[in-house]
Specification:
With 389 residues, this protein is α+β, with helices and mostly antiparallel strands. The chain has 2 domains: 3-46 and 156-222 and 333-388, FAD/NAD(P)-binding domain (3-Layer(bba) Sandwich), CATH 3.50.50.60; 50-154 and 226-330, D-Amino Acid Oxidase, Chain A, domain 2 (2-Layer Sandwich), CATH 3.30.9.10. It is 25% helix and 27% strand. The strands form 3 sheets. Strands 1, 2, 9, 10, 11, 12, 18 and 19 form an 8-stranded mixed sheet that branches. An 8-stranded mixed sheet has the order 6-7-5-14-15-16-13-17. Strands 3-8-4 form a 3-stranded antiparallel sheet. The radius of gyration is 21 Å and the shape is globular. The two termini are 40 Å apart. The structure holds flavin-adenine dinucleotide (FAD). Flavin-adenine dinucleotide binds at residues 10-16, 33-36, 38, 43-45, 47, 50-51, 179-180, 207-211, 215, 230, 232, 326-328, 352-353, 355-359. The site of flavin-adenine dinucleotide (FAD) has 38 residues, from helix 1, strand 3, strand 13 and strand 17.
Amino acid sequence: MSENYRAIVIGLGAMGSSTVYQLSKRGVKTLGIDQFSPPHTLGSTHGDTRITRKGIGEGVQYTPLSLRSYEIIEALEAETSSDLLQKTGGLIICSTPDSMARHTEAFFQNTVDAAKKYDIKHDILNAQEIKKRFPQFNVSDQEIGYYEYEAGIMRPERIVERQLQLAKKHGAEIHTDEKLIDFNETKDGITIRTDKNTYRCDSLVLSLGPWLNQMVSKKSFESIFKVYRQVLYWFDIAANFKDFSPPQFPIFIWELKGDKNGMYGFPAVDGPDGGFKLAFEQYDKPCETSSVDREVSRDEIESMFDLYVAPHFPGAKNKCVRSAICLYTVTPDGAFVIDRLPDSNNVLVCSPCSGHGFKHSPAIGECMTDLILTGESKIDLTSFKLDRF
Ligand SMILES: Cc1cc2nc3c(=O)[nH]c(=O)nc-3n(C[C@H](O)[C@H](O)[C@H](O)COP(=O)(O)OP(=O)(O)OC[C@H]3O[C@@H](n4cnc5c(N)ncnc54)[C@H](O)[C@@H]3O)c2cc1C
């Protein structure tokens, strides 16, 4: 006889760990399963830091998720005595405020609109003001900035770890190194088959990160998700290390004029030898989880320094102290998918969120729990439905 659960969550990265944590906190009999032992470095939730901000430029639908996530993470910090969120301040630099696109059109203007609507403390800075406040950034005269005081850094690995620890404490079962093979929904419930066992549940959450396509393609929306290899770089600092550390140095998102990728990055948070992390977004060629090149080449490092680091950060040193590969899973409109599978009442899909989901993941876990327990969530998720495609 296979064991019965009220809910099973497959995939325990950002989305799945927050969902099992929230379910278990409400006393729901929950099983969480992952093919590896999260946090790990093979999916989308590693690399030490993620940008978080309150005024969300990707669209009006996101700011409520972000605001709620701040609350959840601050409570989690208190409960676990951990540093999970650091408000370093955040600087968005652009040269075309009306049209700066990032994950969506009008990113800069949307950010300013959200900040005004939700009373989020911010300043609009001209190039002279940016240079005065943040001389580390070599901005050009026509660029302008949005500075948000409470933007900052979230710690992805620690957050996953703490949520899974608390989920266990609240009674959830966590199975690692166990892989979902298939599932089948009938009117009597859902049967899950893994490489180790068979289970039954009333509700199933698939938060499979970049592996999502492989599992659901047979069932439905094969062509929606594309996986892209992203490279994270940590460069050494030639200038005074303190100038590249919080609070002197904020997280940043920089629209680079004439460059479709833009750049984003973080202050140095790992001591004088840890470097500061930056990256640009790459959408040239989709890849597969099984065959993606997980090495960063010397050519990639050299071109990152020449094209992105040196022209914009004169205080950086031409020495890459660390690099990593991480995977984006992107929908055609750059938005999320949080919905039931077509023709299913109880199988929910939570996508890896198109390269901007981590900051929202604590609230997404709470929304998934609401959907399972009550059929609706307090935060409006209608823009993340599958039928928009
Ligand atoms: C380079 C990079 C930078 C980013 N920067 C930011 C940022 O600054 N701010 C921000 O908000 N967001 C950012 N994101 C996005 C954010 O990190 C992701 O939205 C989020 O981490 C996705 O989490 P996930 O749980 O969906 O995926 P994952 O963490 O990949 O988790 C999926 C899990 O499912 C498991 N799994 C898959 N298939 C199976 C199976 N068959 N059986 C069992 N388990 C399975 C996997 O092992 C994995 O642990 C960034 C992403 C990347 C890659």
